[in-house]
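Reopening: Glutamine synthetase still failing for me.
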Amino acid sequence: MSKSKLEYIWLDGYHPTANLRSKTKIETDFSGKLEDCPIWSFDGSSTKQAEGGASDLLLKPVAIYPDPARENGFLVMTEVLNADGTQHVTNSRATIDGDADDDFWFGFEQEYFIMDSHTQLPLGFPIGGYPGPQGLYYCSVGGRNTHGRELVERHADYCLEAGLNFEGINQEVACGQWEFQVFAKGAKNAGDQVWVARYLLDRLTEDYGYYIEYHPKPVKGDWNGSGMHANFSNNLLRTCGSKEIYEKVCEAFRPVTREHIEVYGEFNDERLTGLHETQSIHEFSFGVSDRGASIRIPILTVEKGWKGWLEDRRPASNADPYKVAARIIKTVKSANIEVEA
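Support: Ran it again with your exact input. Result attached.
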């Protein structure tokens, strides 16, 4: 008789920025399969998801991964349900169009700052001052400009051991700022993997006296903010071979700029200023290889004959990938374009 540790992970009810929550369930002779993960409950009154008089909410398992930090451990991503089994209002995963989910592929570029819990500053920032200006930190090597590599490398190993489709890591433009990339076919699948990757990163910081700052502009002044760039495609974008179709899809985003910004992360106005590789939050633009645009058309998409993907550069680092994916899918579908047979 074996015992397994199932870590149930969910998003709480804090608004507009949800937090990760988790707790451990011990199961006997567990198969390791999603279908054998039971629905569990939690106290929603402690997570801003229910009142104390009726606090029981349900956790429905939706994805499972091996837990690289625990013997006989599993990471179980869940959706929050009401006690009667209906979708809870905070269940952002459920807002993704199920009919379009599999058609869309997403690659998220998650930027973040590693913060020292003692100083409350990004790694590399001296108390009462600043490190050298931006320029030498991006993709740097060596102790002068590179900070936090041990944590970042362990996180990459954990994500790979967990079976996430983890695509890479690099130090970013600001001091103490890093990025990882996750790609998945299916919008819900992509969102699940980003949240589990965030969970593993957050949990690792407990070993170092660090914490992860997902605020899109934690350091004011001439420092890059943090985004979660959303690379996306569907069958139309992967096969159309048409500049005109790409431009029509991009134009579909223009009249709903506000609707996108509303779900692209809290405090994003501090990041989307038109500086530091961003477009202004008050403007919309798209362009080939333009990192100052709202939507970048990658040069590889053009070189492959207008068959590829688009990158929405506006989502903030603290955005919910489920909400971002749901809104992008809705807008792309609104263009009402079909590939001719």
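The two ends are 56 Å apart (CA to CA). If you still see a failure, please send the error message rather than a screenshot.
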